Amino acid sequence: MARLPLVSPLDRALFLKAQPYLAGLSPRVVAALAQHTEEVAFAPDAPVYEAGRAPERIYFLSSGAVRTVYEGYAPLSTAAPGGIGLIEYLAESEQPPRAWAHGDVFALSLDVATLLQLVEDEFVLYMTFARNLARAALDELRSRPPAQRAEAGFSQAREREELEAVDLVQRIARARESAFFDGSSLTVMTQLLRFQEPRLLRAGEILWAQGSPVESLALVLDGSLASACDAGETAQPAGSTLGAWELFADETRREEVRATTAARVVEIDRGLFADMLEDHFEFAMDYLAKLSRRVIGLRLVRSE
Q1: Domains of the chain: residue spans and CATH
Q2: What is the pTM of this model?
Q3: 47-56, pLDDT tens digit by residue?
Q4: Are 96 and 74 in contact (CB under 8 A)?
């Protein structure tokens, strides 16, 4: 890896502004990022990341491409002006991938510790990452057949329960069994759910219509739903969290969601969820981790 001739802070800022994961970021925050970057070059086939070691630097590619391989899968390729290392780091994988330069690669690099400090200090930077990662997840989802679009449900099958009112403790306990809220703190879950009474849906009833504003996400407490668009219909099981990726990525719903059986869902307001992200950094980073794992999982399915 070689260091490149220094370019002006303005040139660095203009380059970063064109990066997909930084799209829409204010010039002030882009300039703050640019101050901490270094120019680097990789020769063809030079290692970028070693297998099993979490990335310590993020690379924003100005030319060339980097290949990334997770054990057991075909390599994925990222070309300029893409970034490498961000989702790999955020995903907190137990087996981080190996990556190497595919041809000559030139990039700006940023160490992870500095990036995390900037994310914690600048919520607008956090929301930019959340929005663009969510858009990447949705783009991958929409390129998959309906059978591969289902969100994760409860880890264990549950017996059908009567659709009756549940108190806050029961709502929190059920929510923390879901894949999306697994590991979330009691403090965050209490604030998210204390005023959110479950909504009962009859079979065939619409939760939200295609084209309606994105104002909430919904956790399916029991029963089952289906999401539908022009590509077909996807069954969404109990325990799935719907709308979590489009919450900050889209202004309108791209799919209709309706109940296929009698069901109970709890909706969480978009503004309340954003407030929790801003006030609880650990919860915020967990959301980015889940987004990153979703993107990586979908890309690995594509690579197969």
Answers
A1: 2-121 (2.60.120.10), 141-303 (2.60.120.10)
A2: 0.89
A3: 999 999 999 9
A4: no
